[in-house]
Write a structure and sequence with these properties.
By secondary structure, the protein is α+β, with helices and mostly antiparallel strands. It has ten helices and four strands. It folds into two domains: 184 residues, no CATH class; 97 residues, Alpha-Beta Plaits, CATH 3.30.70.3040.
Length: 322
């Protein structure tokens, strides 16, 4: 009898779940994507509201980025004017110019040193008083000082580094009078720091708002399909199998919102360029106004996808405990 049971047990094969059609990585990905699209079709209004909200939030961020990028360009041009000037009460010989120039360029932060003779200083003075040259009648170049104009590297144009550079400059023998427009440099850097802080605060607020909205949208979808999800859990569906369509749904919402935001931003940008002449006294194109660089556009697309994904993930962690 025992021998017969052993023979029967040897002939019985363990049960194996039959494979599903397309039960591969590509097949599962296709199923998850199709399921996500179906979820969106079944909850059109909720998803439209979510995509519109993501679009609005990213459009605000994109508008700020567009303004900030162009302000950075203007600031870069303005920062070229952040220069330190060393004045002398006499003309310097070629040897003196060369020696002082080498010492100045050896200081950290120095980019370019230009010597301005008395004749050149008088020429510049006359150009600034164009139309009023009669004021300078009888004035010779000997009344003006000679100078070194020192242009600083981009990384050395903030207030503290300029002050440090000037302190080191004054320690060079032969250099006494130094000017660099302290108040202008301070205001310029304060303005840039304020814009960066404002951008960080605005971006952080919008990120939290979008994650909250996407999360609540996914919650509504989960509530609508709660019974179906419970059945899937009871028949052995894994957590990933249940969650994947919702995560993809969040990605679709985020990418769609960011794409629409970029298209709307480009439309606003083109509309502004076409009508700027009617209310501006300068040509924005000639002044260097441009659209967002490609890296910022890709960054917005990635940000939209991440916001949608994080919003879905946050909701799923709270409401799908299978």
């Amino acid at each position: 009898m025992n021998r017969w049971k052993k023979k029967q047990a040897a002939t019985v094969k363990p049960f194996k779940r039959p494979g599903l059609a397309g039960d591969t990585f590509g097949g599962r990905a296709g199923y998850f994507f199709a399921r996500a699209v179906t979820n969106i079709r079944q909850n059109v209004f909720v998803n439209v509201v979510t995509i519109a909200t993501i679009t609005l939030a990213l459009l605000i961020v994109a508008l700020f980025l567009l303004v900030f990028v162009n302000l950075e360009g203007v600031a870069e041009n303005w920062s070229e004017r952040v220069q330190v000037t060393v004045y002398f009460d006499k003309e310097l010989s070629a040897g003196e110019q060369s020696g002082l120039r080498d010492k100045i360029l050896a200081l950290p932060g120095a980019s370019r040193v230009t010597y301005v003779s008395r004749e050149e200083a008088l020429k510049r003075f006359k150009e600034r008083l164009r139309g009023q040259e009669t004021i300078l009648e009888g004035v010779g170049p000997e009344v003006l000082p000679t100078s070194f104009e020192i242009t600083l590297k981009r990384a050395s144009r903030d207030t503290q580094k300029v002050e440090g550079f000037v302190s080191a400059l004054k320690r060079i023998p032969g250099i006494d009078e130094v000017q660099y427009g302290e108040e202008w440099v301070r205001r310029f850097n304060s303005f840039l720091n304020f814009m960066r802080l404002l951008g960080a605060l605005l971006g952080g607020f919008l990120v939290v708002a979008v994650v909250f909205i996407v999360s609540n949208t996914i919650k509504l979808t989960i509530y609508a399909r709660r019974d179906e999800l419970d059945v899937m859990s009871l028949v052995g569906a894994t957590r990933f199998f249940i969650k994947a369509p919702f995560l993809i749904e969040g990605l679709i919402q985020g990418v769609a919102g960011s794409l629409i935001a970029i298209v709307l931003l480009f439309g606003l940008y083109e509309g502004f360029l076409q009508n700027a002449g009617s209310f501006l006294t300068f040509n924005p194109v000639a002044s260097g106004l441009g659209f967002l660089p490609l890296e910022y556009i890709f960054g917005l697309l990635l940000a939209g996808a991440l916001l949608g994904f994080i919003g879905s993930l946050t909701s799923l962690k709270r409401f799908i405990n299978v």
